[in-house]
Design a protein that fits this description.
Length: about 50
């Protein structure tokens, strides 16, 4: 599974623990951006946007 940084689109992000809600977080070494991946696990939700 390829994950791209939301800020710089780099694909060499690494896992950075979890949020309190249990969503995986990732960190990008290029832009030092930390973000959580939620849309992947909610892919079957027709209400998801973006
Ligand atoms: Zn980045």
């Amino acid at each position: 599974m390829l994950i791209h940084c939301h800020r710089c689109q780099a694909n060499n992000v690494y896992r950075y623990g979890k949020t309190p809600a249990g969503h995986a977080r990732h960190s990008c070494p290029a832009s030092l951006h930390v973000f959580q991946i939620t849309y992947i696990y909610q892919g079957r939700n027709p209400d998801i946007k973006g």
